[in-house]
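Hello forum,

I keep getting stuck at the same step: I have a sequence, I want structure tokens, and every attempt I make locally crashes halfway through. Rather than fight my setup again tonight, could one of you with a working pipeline run this one for me? It's a single chain of 753 residues.
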Amino acid sequence: MKIRWILFVSLVFVSQLSVYSQQDTSVVFSSEKEAKEKMENFLEIAGQNRVKDIRKSVEFSEKALKIAQKIENYEYLYRAEFLLGFAHYNQNNFEKSLLHFGNSLKYSRLSENAEGEAAALNRLGNSYQLMGKFNKALELYKEAMQINRTLNDKLEIARTLTNLGSIYRLFGNYELAINQHLEALDTYEGLQNNEGIAWSALNIARLFKMMKNYSKSIEYIHQSLEIYELIEGEGATNTGVTLCLKELGSVYYEMGDSQKAIEYSEKVLERNKITGNQQGIANSLSTLGQIYFYREEPAKSLSFFLEAKELKDSLNDKTEMSLILRYLGRIYLLKGNIPKAGEYLQESLEYAQKQNLKEEIKEDYLALSELCEKRNQLQLAFGYYKQYTALKDSLNSQKINELELQYEFDKQQREAEFEQKQKDALQQAKLQKQKIYTWAFVGGFLFMIVFAYVIFKNYQRKKRTNIILTRQKEEIEAQKDEIEAQRDYVTKQRDQIAHQNTIITDSIEYASRIQAALFPQQKKLQELLPAHFIFMKPKNIVSGDFYWITEKGKKLIVVVSDCTGHGVPGAFMSMLGIAFLSEIVNKSRVIQPNKILDELRERIIESLHQDYGSRGSKDGMDMAICIIDKESLLMEYAGAYNPVFIVRNKELIELKADKMPIGIHAVKVEKGFSKQEFTLEKNDMVYMFSDGYMDQFGGAEGLKFKQKSFKELLTKIADKKEDAQLKKIEKTMKDWQGDFSQIDDIMVLGFRI
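Reply #2:
Ran it on my machine without issues. Output:
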């Protein structure tokens, strides 16, 4: 019997050992505890070497992974897979890093390890971001943030905020990006995490650089550099110092100080070569290529860009690839190698569109427009340039839209806070009331007992009881007064918020009255244009579109203009335009529309301090100007992007505009605006307009109204009375727009000869 028992125990022991050795018979552990101790040792070695010796980190992570697979321990499987993912990530092997980080995410979920799940999601996001798949990265960062917020893990919240900020920066959403980085900086400062503070400050500096606030950018870079130099002095990694030097070079480059930009960029290149950072070397080469391009040294620029592209191709690194390809295309365009330039520019646009890099897409459109112009493909060149200007206007107006949204959000927040305070006050009043009832009941009950006791004892006890009741009454009155005071305070806050909102709205409406006062009054309009209509629909109370009508001698001058932006910024531009037009026309002896546009462009460029290149304001206006001789009916016309339509006997005649704005142009032009002459006939209908009507989204498919539909509409209604035309134009736009938001100011001016 004893022998059988010994055999049974031996078999059980052998079967337990087989659990740990079924995949690798060379490793046998006597217990799960011993296996865990071994894995802890392996993972510690892997973690210590994940930056300085990646090969060793991979080796020991795989050893730990094999043991974890044998004992099916999800926690150790997660940790081993995570370290393997990190090692491959540091080698820019993103396909493998995605595989291992994906496995670590799976095992963290199986072991219900929320911290591990968030860390894996963040690292997966990092991998997708460096692969150029920004939408996928954003989705993963948001998922990680939701978990970290639930756990209230401050350090991981700050890291995820930094990741989110970097994506929003790449998407061109600078306001949202800087909010993420400022919150991260505040969190790191609360944790006294110097490396986090330095990294957040550097990211904020990059955003200020993109917003052209160079002094603020340099301030944050130096804040970051001081911390990174301190860390480097303690013997830690020196990557941070390199990044700060790189940003300083970039800022000085954008400021126009190419010598300093080259000095810092060469320092960065040298540091990357010392550390063997291949990705950093490629980026430094790209930066130097850009600087030499703008120093008009194409040979040096080409050499740097070709070397950068070759290195990035070998690393499978997609970051900045769109930029490098575009500059290569522009260099070959300068050299006159049109086929090679076209090949690089098309490839650059494809990269930018795949990665949704709006700034890169915009610059590619401009470069392709210049290429098509060289090929004499003028229609295609114009198409690319229209796409460039549309995207440029969209990016320029993005910040204004975000500020408007922020105002609405703040307003809603104030209203929500007021409602919450009202609820809190009511709840407090209910509690106070309940407390009063409780005290009253207790007091009454005590009164009854004391009263019975007084009757039983003596009159003196009765008198003492009455004193107690009097005190209780005073307390109740005091509590009542406190409740009423709280109610009055909440009411006062509500009235104050309502008053502030009224002041803001009244200010904008008053501005609209000022703007309306600058337009020709109805009596004057009726005198100058007896048969006319004006359809004017601002997007935001005040308008960036304007019209201006006057006469000088026997000539009638009619102007319609569309300024950059809408709302308050557009209104300022419109008032500037009206002031300049009035001054130019009143001082001029010879009235010619093209000369007026030339002088107006000079004044806009001078007053807004505009300059050709990457710096300075790009604001301006599109305009059509018609000067009609009232006796001969000869009309002289000149236009900056804005054409004029004339409808005669149900036939539409278009006078086309010059393809350049009133203001700074994308490329420096020496030519002035051209003039066209057209003899009008009695009963001709002349239409002048901004692009707001044609660009409005609507209809069943949410598309733009477009110029073709606008021409058809005008041709159909031209023989109707002017007030009937106005009603038809208004109704057509209302039906087309439907539930879609108005995207721009709209103005159409029509008058009959």
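The first strand starts at residue 532 and ends at 537. If your local run keeps crashing, start a new thread with the error log.
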